[in-house]
Protein backbone atom coordinates (compact mmCIF):
# COMPACT_ATOMS: atom_id res chain seq x y z
CA UNK A 1 0.00 0.00 0.00
CA UNK A 2 1.32 3.47 -0.77
CA UNK A 3 1.06 6.11 1.90
CA UNK A 4 0.62 9.69 0.85
CA UNK A 5 0.49 12.63 3.27
CA UNK A 6 -0.42 15.68 1.28
CA UNK A 7 2.09 18.49 1.39
CA UNK A 8 0.25 20.93 -0.89
CA UNK A 9 -0.97 24.33 0.22
CA UNK A 10 -4.54 23.06 0.35
CA UNK A 11 -5.82 26.04 2.37
CA UNK A 12 -5.17 28.36 -0.57
CA UNK A 13 -8.25 26.92 -2.29
CA UNK A 14 -10.29 28.74 0.37
CA UNK A 15 -10.81 32.31 -0.93
CA UNK A 16 -10.36 33.89 2.51
CA UNK A 17 -6.93 32.32 2.95
CA UNK A 18 -5.71 32.21 -0.66
CA UNK A 19 -2.58 34.19 0.09
CA UNK A 20 -1.78 32.58 3.45
CA UNK A 21 1.79 31.44 3.95
CA UNK A 22 2.74 28.05 5.36
CA UNK A 23 4.35 29.83 8.32
CA UNK A 24 1.13 31.61 9.22
CA UNK A 25 -1.06 28.58 8.59
CA UNK A 26 1.34 26.41 10.56
CA UNK A 27 1.15 28.59 13.67
CA UNK A 28 -1.25 27.10 16.23
CA UNK A 29 -2.22 30.46 17.70
CA UNK A 30 -3.14 31.80 14.23
CA UNK A 31 -5.29 28.67 13.81
CA UNK A 32 -7.06 29.29 17.10
CA UNK A 33 -7.58 33.01 16.46
CA UNK A 34 -9.00 32.32 13.01
CA UNK A 35 -11.30 29.45 13.91
CA UNK A 36 -14.64 29.49 12.10
CA UNK A 37 -17.39 29.83 14.69
CA UNK A 38 -20.48 31.13 12.89
CA UNK A 39 -22.31 31.00 9.59
CA UNK A 40 -21.41 34.62 8.67
CA UNK A 41 -17.78 33.66 9.17
CA UNK A 42 -18.23 30.58 6.94
CA UNK A 43 -19.58 32.90 4.23
CA UNK A 44 -16.80 35.42 4.66
CA UNK A 45 -14.10 32.80 4.29
CA UNK A 46 -15.73 30.78 1.50
CA UNK A 47 -17.07 33.70 -0.58
CA UNK A 48 -18.24 32.33 -3.97
CA UNK A 49 -17.68 28.73 -2.83
CA UNK A 50 -20.73 29.02 -0.58
CA UNK A 51 -23.91 28.72 -2.64
CA UNK A 52 -27.18 30.14 -1.36
CA UNK A 53 -28.63 26.65 -1.11
CA UNK A 54 -25.74 25.40 1.04
CA UNK A 55 -25.86 28.51 3.25
CA UNK A 56 -29.59 27.96 3.85
CA UNK A 57 -28.99 24.29 4.61
CA UNK A 58 -26.27 25.15 7.13
CA UNK A 59 -28.51 27.78 8.72
CA UNK A 60 -31.28 25.20 9.11
CA UNK A 61 -28.75 22.75 10.54
CA UNK A 62 -27.52 25.19 13.15
CA UNK A 63 -31.08 25.78 14.29
CA UNK A 64 -31.50 22.12 15.11
CA UNK A 65 -28.16 21.23 16.54
CA UNK A 66 -27.34 20.92 20.22
CA UNK A 67 -23.71 21.90 19.35
CA UNK A 68 -22.28 25.21 18.19
CA UNK A 69 -19.84 25.52 15.29
CA UNK A 70 -16.11 25.69 15.82
CA UNK A 71 -13.58 24.61 13.20
CA UNK A 72 -9.88 25.33 12.92
CA UNK A 73 -8.86 26.72 9.49
CA UNK A 74 -6.86 23.50 9.12
CA UNK A 75 -9.87 21.21 9.35
CA UNK A 76 -12.09 23.71 7.50
CA UNK A 77 -9.72 23.66 4.49
CA UNK A 78 -9.68 19.88 4.38
CA UNK A 79 -13.35 19.92 3.37
CA UNK A 80 -13.95 19.56 -0.35
CA UNK A 81 -16.29 22.56 -0.66
CA UNK A 82 -17.20 21.70 -4.26
CA UNK A 83 -18.85 18.60 -2.85
CA UNK A 84 -19.60 19.71 0.69
CA UNK A 85 -22.85 17.79 1.08
CA UNK A 86 -21.13 14.41 0.94
CA UNK A 87 -17.79 15.39 2.41
CA UNK A 88 -16.81 13.24 5.41
CA UNK A 89 -15.02 16.08 7.20
CA UNK A 90 -17.91 18.51 6.70
CA UNK A 91 -20.27 15.89 8.12
CA UNK A 92 -18.27 15.77 11.34
CA UNK A 93 -18.27 19.49 12.06
CA UNK A 94 -21.01 21.33 10.21
CA UNK A 95 -24.66 20.27 10.29
CA UNK A 96 -27.02 20.49 7.32
CA UNK A 97 -30.71 20.87 8.14
CA UNK A 98 -31.65 18.60 5.24
CA UNK A 99 -29.80 15.65 6.75
CA UNK A 100 -31.37 15.46 10.20
CA UNK A 101 -33.66 12.60 11.17
CA UNK A 102 -36.05 12.54 14.10
CA UNK A 103 -34.41 11.34 17.33
CA UNK A 104 -35.04 7.75 18.36
CA UNK A 105 -37.79 7.64 21.02
CA UNK A 106 -35.33 5.94 23.41
CA UNK A 107 -32.43 8.39 23.10
CA UNK A 108 -31.05 9.84 26.33
CA UNK A 109 -29.46 13.20 27.06
CA UNK A 110 -26.76 11.66 29.23
CA UNK A 111 -26.82 8.39 27.35
CA UNK A 112 -23.86 6.87 29.18
CA UNK A 113 -25.23 7.85 32.59
CA UNK A 114 -22.00 9.66 33.39
CA UNK A 115 -23.85 11.88 35.84
CA UNK A 116 -24.91 8.72 37.71
CA UNK A 117 -21.30 7.54 38.11
CA UNK A 118 -19.95 10.88 39.30
CA UNK A 119 -17.58 10.49 42.24
CA UNK A 120 -16.69 14.21 42.37
CA UNK A 121 -17.90 17.08 40.13
CA UNK A 122 -14.99 16.29 37.77
CA UNK A 123 -14.63 12.53 38.06
CA UNK A 124 -16.56 9.58 36.61
CA UNK A 125 -15.81 6.35 38.47
CA UNK A 126 -17.57 3.53 36.66
CA UNK A 127 -15.00 0.75 36.35
CA UNK A 128 -13.19 -0.76 39.35
CA UNK A 129 -9.64 0.32 38.42
CA UNK A 130 -9.96 3.21 35.99
CA UNK A 131 -11.51 6.68 36.15
CA UNK A 132 -12.41 9.48 33.79
CA UNK A 133 -11.27 12.94 34.90
CA UNK A 134 -13.00 15.90 33.19
CA UNK A 135 -11.04 19.00 34.22
CA UNK A 136 -12.23 21.21 31.33
CA UNK A 137 -15.29 21.63 29.11
CA UNK A 138 -13.64 23.62 26.34
CA UNK A 139 -12.80 22.14 22.93
CA UNK A 140 -10.72 23.53 20.04
CA UNK A 141 -13.42 22.27 17.64
CA UNK A 142 -17.01 21.17 18.16
CA UNK A 143 -17.57 17.78 16.63
CA UNK A 144 -20.29 16.83 14.39
CA UNK A 145 -23.54 18.29 14.06
CA UNK A 146 -23.82 17.97 17.50
CA UNK A 147 -23.60 15.41 19.42
CA UNK A 148 -21.65 12.58 18.21
CA UNK A 149 -19.79 13.96 21.16
CA UNK A 150 -21.01 12.06 24.18
CA UNK A 151 -20.65 15.18 26.25
CA UNK A 152 -22.48 17.62 24.00
CA UNK A 153 -24.70 18.29 26.98
CA UNK A 154 -21.90 20.23 28.69
CA UNK A 155 -19.36 21.12 26.00
CA UNK A 156 -19.57 24.04 23.64
CA UNK A 157 -21.81 26.64 25.22
CA UNK A 158 -25.55 27.04 24.87
CA UNK A 159 -27.18 26.80 21.44
CA UNK A 160 -30.58 27.49 19.90
CA UNK A 161 -31.95 24.21 21.22
CA UNK A 162 -29.99 23.65 24.40
CA UNK A 163 -28.79 25.58 27.42
CA UNK A 164 -25.77 24.18 29.21
CA UNK A 165 -23.79 24.62 32.38
CA UNK A 166 -20.28 24.87 31.02
CA UNK A 167 -17.12 25.48 32.95
CA UNK A 168 -13.60 26.25 31.71
CA UNK A 169 -10.61 24.73 33.41
CA UNK A 170 -11.07 25.17 37.11
CA UNK A 171 -7.79 24.05 38.59
CA UNK A 172 -8.55 25.47 42.02
CA UNK A 173 -11.32 22.93 42.41
CA UNK A 174 -9.50 19.73 41.47
CA UNK A 175 -8.04 18.96 44.89
CA UNK A 176 -11.05 16.95 46.08
CA UNK A 177 -10.77 14.87 42.90
CA UNK A 178 -7.07 14.19 43.49
CA UNK A 179 -7.91 13.28 47.09
CA UNK A 180 -10.63 10.87 45.97
CA UNK A 181 -8.10 9.15 43.70
CA UNK A 182 -5.51 9.04 46.50
CA UNK A 183 -8.09 7.46 48.81
CA UNK A 184 -9.00 4.70 46.32
CA UNK A 185 -6.00 2.41 45.88
CA UNK A 186 -7.81 0.21 43.36
CA UNK A 187 -7.63 3.01 40.78
CA UNK A 188 -4.64 2.53 38.46
CA UNK A 189 -5.69 4.32 35.25
CA UNK A 190 -6.75 7.93 34.82
CA UNK A 191 -8.18 9.26 31.55
CA UNK A 192 -7.87 13.05 31.41
CA UNK A 193 -10.55 14.23 29.01
CA UNK A 194 -13.17 16.94 28.91
CA UNK A 195 -13.60 18.97 26.83
CA UNK A 196 -10.21 18.54 25.30
CA UNK A 197 -6.85 18.25 27.04
CA UNK A 198 -5.28 20.29 24.20
CA UNK A 199 -6.76 23.39 25.83
CA UNK A 200 -5.29 22.76 29.25
CA UNK A 201 -2.53 25.30 29.85
CA UNK A 202 1.06 24.05 30.26
CA UNK A 203 0.92 24.68 34.01
CA UNK A 204 -2.29 22.64 34.21
CA UNK A 205 -0.79 19.76 32.21
CA UNK A 206 2.08 19.73 34.71
CA UNK A 207 -0.13 20.10 37.77
CA UNK A 208 -2.51 17.32 36.77
CA UNK A 209 0.17 15.03 35.37
CA UNK A 210 2.67 15.33 38.22
CA UNK A 211 0.02 15.20 40.95
CA UNK A 212 -1.38 11.97 39.53
CA UNK A 213 2.07 10.42 38.96
CA UNK A 214 2.90 11.14 42.62
CA UNK A 215 0.10 8.80 43.69
CA UNK A 216 1.79 5.39 44.05
CA UNK A 217 -1.15 3.28 42.83
CA UNK A 218 -1.64 5.36 39.66
CA UNK A 219 0.28 3.47 36.95
CA UNK A 220 -1.03 5.00 33.71
CA UNK A 221 -2.48 8.33 32.67
CA UNK A 222 -3.80 9.40 29.26
CA UNK A 223 -4.52 12.83 27.94
CA UNK A 224 -7.49 12.63 25.58
CA UNK A 225 -7.51 15.16 22.77
CA UNK A 226 -8.77 15.52 19.25
CA UNK A 227 -5.94 17.99 18.79
CA UNK A 228 -3.59 15.92 16.65
CA UNK A 229 -6.40 15.45 14.12
CA UNK A 230 -7.62 19.03 13.98
CA UNK A 231 -4.69 21.20 15.09
CA UNK A 232 -1.43 19.28 14.57
CA UNK A 233 0.42 22.62 14.45
CA UNK A 234 0.20 22.86 18.21
CA UNK A 235 2.58 19.90 18.55
CA UNK A 236 5.05 21.75 16.32
CA UNK A 237 4.72 25.34 17.52
CA UNK A 238 3.43 25.43 21.12
CA UNK A 239 6.79 24.81 22.76
CA UNK A 240 5.67 25.46 26.33
CA UNK A 241 2.80 23.03 26.06
CA UNK A 242 5.00 20.33 24.54
CA UNK A 243 7.69 20.87 27.19
CA UNK A 244 5.06 20.38 29.91
CA UNK A 245 3.78 17.19 28.29
CA UNK A 246 7.30 15.86 27.81
CA UNK A 247 8.18 16.57 31.44
CA UNK A 248 5.13 14.62 32.63
CA UNK A 249 5.98 11.81 30.22
CA UNK A 250 9.59 11.53 31.33
CA UNK A 251 8.59 11.69 34.99
CA UNK A 252 6.31 8.73 34.32
CA UNK A 253 8.97 6.77 32.44
CA UNK A 254 11.37 7.01 35.38
CA UNK A 255 8.72 5.34 37.55
CA UNK A 256 7.62 2.67 35.02
CA UNK A 257 4.38 4.58 34.52
CA UNK A 258 2.78 5.21 31.14
CA UNK A 259 1.82 8.70 30.04
CA UNK A 260 0.26 8.83 26.59
CA UNK A 261 -2.18 10.64 24.32
CA UNK A 262 -5.47 9.25 23.06
CA UNK A 263 -6.64 11.07 19.98
CA UNK A 264 -9.53 10.92 17.55
CA UNK A 265 -9.17 10.60 13.79
CA UNK A 266 -12.30 9.52 11.89
CA UNK A 267 -10.87 9.09 8.38
CA UNK A 268 -7.63 9.45 6.45
CA UNK A 269 -8.91 12.80 5.12
CA UNK A 270 -7.76 14.36 8.39
CA UNK A 271 -4.16 13.14 7.92
CA UNK A 272 -1.70 15.40 6.08
CA UNK A 273 1.96 16.29 6.00
CA UNK A 274 1.32 18.29 9.20
CA UNK A 275 0.15 15.09 10.89
CA UNK A 276 3.30 13.31 9.80
CA UNK A 277 5.50 16.09 11.23
CA UNK A 278 3.49 16.22 14.47
CA UNK A 279 3.80 12.46 14.94
CA UNK A 280 7.52 12.57 14.19
CA UNK A 281 7.83 15.12 17.00
CA UNK A 282 5.78 13.03 19.45
CA UNK A 283 7.55 9.79 18.59
CA UNK A 284 10.94 11.47 18.99
CA UNK A 285 9.92 12.69 22.42
CA UNK A 286 8.84 9.19 23.36
CA UNK A 287 5.13 9.97 23.64
CA UNK A 288 2.81 7.12 22.72
CA UNK A 289 -0.41 7.90 20.83
CA UNK A 290 -3.53 5.80 20.39
CA UNK A 291 -6.70 6.50 18.44
CA UNK A 292 -10.37 6.18 19.35
CA UNK A 293 -12.87 6.65 16.51
CA UNK A 294 -16.62 6.80 16.40
CA UNK A 295 -18.40 4.86 13.69
CA UNK A 296 -20.26 7.55 11.74
CA UNK A 297 -22.67 6.87 8.92
CA UNK A 298 -21.49 8.37 5.64
CA UNK A 299 -18.09 9.14 7.13
CA UNK A 300 -16.26 5.92 7.99
CA UNK A 301 -18.81 3.08 8.06
CA UNK A 302 -17.32 1.18 5.15
CA UNK A 303 -14.57 -1.40 5.18
CA UNK A 304 -12.48 0.45 2.60
CA UNK A 305 -12.51 3.75 4.49
CA UNK A 306 -11.88 2.13 7.86
CA UNK A 307 -9.16 -0.15 6.50
CA UNK A 308 -7.27 2.73 4.91
CA UNK A 309 -7.72 4.79 8.07
CA UNK A 310 -6.26 2.17 10.40
CA UNK A 311 -3.42 1.33 7.99
CA UNK A 312 -2.48 4.98 7.84
CA UNK A 313 -2.76 5.40 11.62
CA UNK A 314 -0.47 2.40 12.06
CA UNK A 315 2.00 3.97 9.59
CA UNK A 316 2.06 7.06 11.80
CA UNK A 317 2.72 5.01 14.96
CA UNK A 318 -0.79 5.78 16.18
CA UNK A 319 -2.32 2.61 17.55
CA UNK A 320 -5.96 2.09 16.52
CA UNK A 321 -7.52 1.34 19.92
CA UNK A 322 -11.31 1.64 19.78
CA UNK A 323 -14.09 2.18 17.29
CA UNK A 324 -17.28 3.13 19.12
CA UNK A 325 -20.77 2.44 17.93
CA UNK A 326 -22.30 5.92 17.96
CA UNK A 327 -23.79 6.90 21.32
CA UNK A 328 -27.55 7.46 21.57
CA UNK A 329 -27.39 11.21 21.97
CA UNK A 330 -29.84 13.76 20.57
CA UNK A 331 -29.52 15.15 17.04
CA UNK A 332 -27.41 12.34 15.64
CA UNK A 333 -29.86 9.76 14.32
CA UNK A 334 -28.60 10.31 10.75
CA UNK A 335 -25.03 9.61 11.88
CA UNK A 336 -25.66 6.30 13.67
CA UNK A 337 -25.31 2.80 12.29
CA UNK A 338 -26.81 -0.51 13.37
CA UNK A 339 -25.04 -2.93 15.70
CA UNK A 340 -25.23 -5.48 12.85
CA UNK A 341 -23.23 -3.18 10.59
CA UNK A 342 -20.62 -2.67 13.31
CA UNK A 343 -20.35 -6.46 13.79
CA UNK A 344 -19.83 -7.02 10.07
CA UNK A 345 -17.19 -4.33 9.88
CA UNK A 346 -15.39 -5.71 12.92
CA UNK A 347 -15.37 -9.18 11.41
CA UNK A 348 -13.75 -7.90 8.22
CA UNK A 349 -11.16 -5.77 10.00
CA UNK A 350 -9.93 -8.70 12.08
CA UNK A 351 -6.98 -10.30 10.37
CA UNK A 352 -6.43 -7.40 7.97
CA UNK A 353 -3.64 -5.85 10.04
CA UNK A 354 -1.38 -6.73 13.00
CA UNK A 355 -3.38 -7.75 16.04
CA UNK A 356 -2.11 -4.86 18.15
CA UNK A 357 -3.28 -2.45 15.46
CA UNK A 358 -6.72 -4.02 15.19
CA UNK A 359 -9.18 -1.65 16.87
CA UNK A 360 -11.73 -3.10 19.26
CA UNK A 361 -15.25 -2.37 18.04
CA UNK A 362 -17.32 -1.49 21.09
CA UNK A 363 -20.76 -0.30 22.09
CA UNK A 364 -20.80 1.89 25.20
CA UNK A 365 -23.94 0.41 26.69
CA UNK A 366 -26.51 3.19 27.27
CA UNK A 367 -27.30 3.68 30.93
CA UNK A 368 -23.78 3.06 32.24
CA UNK A 369 -22.94 -0.53 31.30
CA UNK A 370 -19.64 0.67 29.89
CA UNK A 371 -17.78 -0.40 26.77
CA UNK A 372 -18.81 -3.80 25.48
CA UNK A 373 -17.24 -5.74 22.61
CA UNK A 374 -19.82 -5.31 19.86
CA UNK A 375 -20.25 -9.02 19.26
CA UNK A 376 -20.79 -9.70 22.98
CA UNK A 377 -24.46 -8.70 23.14
CA UNK A 378 -26.71 -11.10 25.09
CA UNK A 379 -29.47 -10.90 22.48
CA UNK A 380 -30.16 -8.92 19.35
CA UNK A 381 -33.42 -8.50 17.48
CA UNK A 382 -32.34 -7.23 14.09
CA UNK A 383 -35.88 -6.40 12.99
CA UNK A 384 -36.56 -4.04 15.88
CA UNK A 385 -32.91 -3.06 16.17
CA UNK A 386 -32.82 -3.78 19.90
CA UNK A 387 -29.72 -5.33 21.44
CA UNK A 388 -29.35 -6.26 25.11
CA UNK A 389 -26.10 -6.15 27.01
CA UNK A 390 -24.79 -7.01 30.44
CA UNK A 391 -21.52 -6.04 32.10
CA UNK A 392 -20.69 -8.47 34.91
CA UNK A 393 -17.53 -6.63 36.05
CA UNK A 394 -19.23 -3.26 36.08
CA UNK A 395 -22.91 -3.56 36.94
CA UNK A 396 -23.66 -7.11 38.14
CA UNK A 397 -26.49 -8.75 36.24
CA UNK A 398 -28.21 -5.53 35.14
CA UNK A 399 -29.48 -5.44 31.53
CA UNK A 400 -28.78 -2.56 29.13
CA UNK A 401 -30.34 -1.82 25.74
CA UNK A 402 -29.03 -0.21 22.57
CA UNK A 403 -31.43 0.80 19.80
CA UNK A 404 -30.40 0.87 16.13
CA UNK A 405 -31.40 3.90 14.03
CA UNK A 406 -34.94 3.34 12.83
CA UNK A 407 -34.43 4.28 9.17
CA UNK A 408 -31.86 1.47 8.83
CA UNK A 409 -34.25 -1.28 10.01
CA UNK A 410 -36.25 -3.69 7.84
CA UNK A 411 -39.74 -2.44 7.03
CA UNK A 412 -41.43 -4.39 9.84
CA UNK A 413 -39.08 -2.84 12.36
CA UNK A 414 -39.65 0.68 11.05
CA UNK A 415 -43.38 0.11 11.37
CA UNK A 416 -43.02 -1.00 15.01
CA UNK A 417 -41.37 2.30 15.94
CA UNK A 418 -43.16 4.70 13.62
CA UNK A 419 -46.53 3.65 14.96
CA UNK A 420 -46.33 5.47 18.30
CA UNK A 421 -49.62 4.07 19.53
CA UNK A 422 -49.04 1.72 22.45
CA UNK A 423 -45.32 1.82 21.77
CA UNK A 424 -44.39 1.84 25.45
CA UNK A 425 -46.54 -1.20 26.15
CA UNK A 426 -45.17 -3.08 23.16
CA UNK A 427 -41.62 -2.25 24.27
CA UNK A 428 -42.34 -3.39 27.83
CA UNK A 429 -43.74 -6.64 26.46
CA UNK A 430 -40.64 -7.13 24.35
CA UNK A 431 -38.38 -6.58 27.34
CA UNK A 432 -40.43 -8.83 29.63
CA UNK A 433 -39.76 -11.67 27.21
CA UNK A 434 -36.06 -11.09 27.77
CA UNK A 435 -35.45 -9.43 24.46
CA UNK A 436 -36.79 -12.23 22.30
CA UNK A 437 -38.44 -11.34 19.03
CA UNK A 438 -42.07 -10.25 18.97
CA UNK A 439 -44.10 -9.97 15.82
CA UNK A 440 -44.52 -6.34 14.88
CA UNK A 441 -48.18 -5.39 14.95
C1 LIG B 1 -13.71 4.69 28.44
C2 LIG B 1 -13.74 4.96 29.86
C3 LIG B 1 -12.64 4.65 30.68
C4 LIG B 1 -11.37 4.02 30.12
O1 LIG B 1 -11.65 2.75 29.62
P1 LIG B 1 -10.61 1.95 28.71
O2 LIG B 1 -11.39 0.77 28.24
O3 LIG B 1 -9.47 1.57 29.56
O4 LIG B 1 -10.20 2.84 27.58
C5 LIG B 1 -12.75 4.93 32.03
N1 LIG B 1 -13.87 5.46 32.56
C6 LIG B 1 -14.95 5.76 31.81
C7 LIG B 1 -16.17 6.30 32.44
C8 LIG B 1 -14.92 5.52 30.42
O5 LIG B 1 -15.98 5.84 29.67
CATH superfamily of the largest domain: Aldolase class I
Give the topology string: H per helix, E per strand: HHHHHHEEEHEHEHHHEHEHEHEEEEHEHH
**Main sheet summary:** 10 strands, mixed
Contiguous runs where pLDDT drops below 50 for at least 5 residues: none
Radius of gyration: 22 Å
Give me the side-by-side strand order of the main sheet.
1-2-3-4-5-6-7-8-9-10
Give the strand content.
Answer: 5-15%
Counting DSSP H or I runs of 4 or more residues, the number of helices is 17
Architecture of the largest domain, CATH level 2?
Alpha-Beta Barrel
Question: What is the terminal-to-terminal distance?
Answer: 51 Å
Mean pLDDT: 92
The computed structural class is alpha/beta
Unique ligands: pyridoxal-5'-phosphate
Number of domains: 3
- What is the CATH class designation of the largest domain? Alpha Beta
Total strands: the figure is 13
Percent helix among the residues? 25-40%
Model description:
- The chain has 441 residues and is an alpha/beta fold.
- It folds into three domains: 1-10 and 102-337, Alpha-Beta Barrel (TIM Barrel); 11-99, no CATH class; 351-441, no CATH class.
- Helices cover 33% and strands 14% of the residues.
- The strands form two sheets. A ten-stranded mixed β-sheet has the order 1-2-3-4-5-6-7-8-9-10.
- Strand 9 (360-365) and strand 10 (370-373) form a beta hairpin.
- The radius of gyration is 22 Å and the shape is globular.
- The N and C termini lie far apart (51 Å).
- The mean pLDDT is 92.
- Bound molecules: pyridoxal-5'-phosphate.
- Pyridoxal-5'-phosphate binds next to strand 3 and strand 4.
Amino acid sequence: MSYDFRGDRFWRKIPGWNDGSAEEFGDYSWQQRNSVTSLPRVGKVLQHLLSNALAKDIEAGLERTPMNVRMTPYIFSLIDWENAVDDPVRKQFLPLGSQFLEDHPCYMDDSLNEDGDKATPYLIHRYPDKVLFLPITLCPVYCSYCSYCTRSRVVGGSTAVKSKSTYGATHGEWESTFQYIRDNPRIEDVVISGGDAFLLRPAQIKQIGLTLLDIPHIRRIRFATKGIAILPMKILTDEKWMAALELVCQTGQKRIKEVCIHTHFSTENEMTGWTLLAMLELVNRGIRVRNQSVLIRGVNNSFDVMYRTIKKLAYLNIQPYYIYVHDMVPGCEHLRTTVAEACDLSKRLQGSIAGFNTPRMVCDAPGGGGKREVSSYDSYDRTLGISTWSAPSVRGDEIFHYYDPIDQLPEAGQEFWNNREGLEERLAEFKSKGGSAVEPT
